[in-house]
């Protein structure tokens, strides 16, 4: 079963008077309920690809389908609603809302998804327990360490039980020990909740945990590794 | 999603900037309210003054207002007593009516025969007791004391004149008026008056000079145009705020005025002055009066005029203060607009990554727009609420500071008061107006924030 299908996806950026190709004719599938890593050097296009999969950017050509839904068919509001319900984001810089507590940060996507109060409360507590921050629920991001902030971000990404969780270099701003802890946490939650996780990373520790790895260079797929097969 | 708590917390992030914006709004709201309170005070003060002297409504001959100035006696109301009785007895008007009293205007020449001087005067006759009741009217609770008319308790031939009239008629010394210079007049020479007439006049003058020196002769044309003269005793000279009035005004008892103008004819009044309990009763009272006049006095050329029509300066002054108030409010609105807009623009720049994050996790563009507009409106609300509180405090201090001023047309200073408390329309208008302006100010930065591309916003450094 495929969680994400990309076909003929292309994306260009305008740099002054020059068109810079970021992705060229990308086509591949991401298997559901897997831990997939988009791997490649800086500037290879993995963040652009992740943005297109997450529906926060639109391709110049080609199609992106999430659980069978062509994102190109959705207008801006519908795409926002789709993201709110179906996609979770984990950012390199955590991107927590500084004025909200850990609890409120996790609760925010549930408010956007109009989840009833009781279910919301139960879900937030469950997630903060799962990421080991139940005792930090009332803390604001500036009262948390980097690792704790990223744990809150993981809990926030999972709040609406999305079918797809996207993480852009989630360990880049963490020390290796904390980074490993975050990867282990995400791996555990991915297995427990049967979610599809897609990372962009060039961290070997992340690559080692991956079920599948998609290698990108200069905006093109160079290889796709699966646990049981290798396609070049 | 309830964006209100999020917006409120965002405002507290940069406290210094929010405080600066709030301060600007507080000063703005305070300026609007203090000036508005002052203007309101002027408006109600003028209204009180007019109503105390000339009532809310007057029943007059249809043409008296436009043509009666030249010959008031020709526009008298012969049926004035019956009209007053009908008005007083009417069950609809009775609860509204405080006073219904006749007045008679006249013009003529006042002379101090003993001093050989005279001058033209205007004035009229009033029912003193009823006029004194009218002067009790203080529906807006001004801190003023009411003195009875100087005619109170005087003989029927008593008259009160302006100090200017007293000065010209050389009555300053007998009336003990201070700061009243005496003119230096060269004695008349020549043959303009025949010797025998001059001798007679001198003899008569000598006899009059033997009196106490406060008697004047008032010459007025009667209803048929013939001259009538009354000898009146000046009981007081009262300064008027306007020199032209001070130099011309005379006031006497109503009966004496009627006798002077109508002699043995049917006595009339030139107006029936009606004072109501409250100014906002004017429209209802007017409608009822017109019904009564049509019903009981059909065919009579009667009209009902309100105090604003009778005193055109009232509308002009209120209009002038309204225009100044509008200008100040507009100016402050523009300042608030730019201040809040600048604050929100800076907030958008600072929170660009946050905007990208909110959009990525599913907040629609409209949600971002709402968030910033709510922040602006909250800032406006907080600023205007604080401004209202500060303005109320400042007004209280001014009202209890013992300050006074002399309004144009007044002789004596009156307490300086700022009417803010109780002016709910102005308070609410300022509160909502500034909140609205602040919300609108935030709209443009909010729109810019909502139009940011998510990936660009997330990349923002």
Automatic annotation (TrEMBL), chain A:
Gene3D superfamilies: P-loop containing nucleotide triphosphate hydrolases. Pfam families: ABC_tran. One of its GO terms (molecular function) is transmembrane transporter activity. SUPFAM superfamilies: P-loop containing nucleoside triphosphate hydrolases (SSF52540). One of its GO terms (biological process) is response to antibiotic. InterPro entries: AAA+_ATPase, ABC_transporter-like_ATP-bd, ABC_transporter-like_CS, ABC_transpr_LolD-like, MacB-like_ATP-bd, P-loop_NTPase. PROSITE patterns: ABC_TRANSPORTER_1, ABC_TRANSPORTER_2. One of its GO terms (cellular component) is membrane protein complex. Keywords: Antibiotic resistance, ATP-binding, Cell membrane, Membrane, Nucleotide-binding, Transmembrane, Transmembrane helix, Transport. Residues 4-232 form the ABC transporter domain. Belongs to the ABC transporter superfamily. Macrolide exporter (TC 3.A.1.122) family. This is ABC transporter ATP-binding protein. It comes from Chitiniphilus eburneus.
From TrEMBL, chain B:
It is found in: Cell membrane. The keyword Electron transport does not apply. Its main location: membrane. Residues 327-451 form the ABC3 transporter permease C-terminal domain. GO terms for biological process: lipoprotein localization to outer membrane. Keywords: Cell membrane, Membrane, Transmembrane, Transmembrane helix. Pfam families: FtsX (PF02687). InterPro entries: ABC3_permease_C (IPR003838), Lipoprotein-release_system (IPR051447). It is a multi-pass membrane protein. GO terms for cellular component: plasma membrane protein complex. The keyword Cell membrane applies. The chain crosses the membrane at residues 21-39, 317-340, 371-398, 424-444. Belongs to the ABC-4 integral membrane protein family. LolC/E subfamily. PANTHER family: LIPOPROTEIN-RELEASING SYSTEM TRANSMEMBRANE PROTEIN LOLE. This is ABC transporter permease.
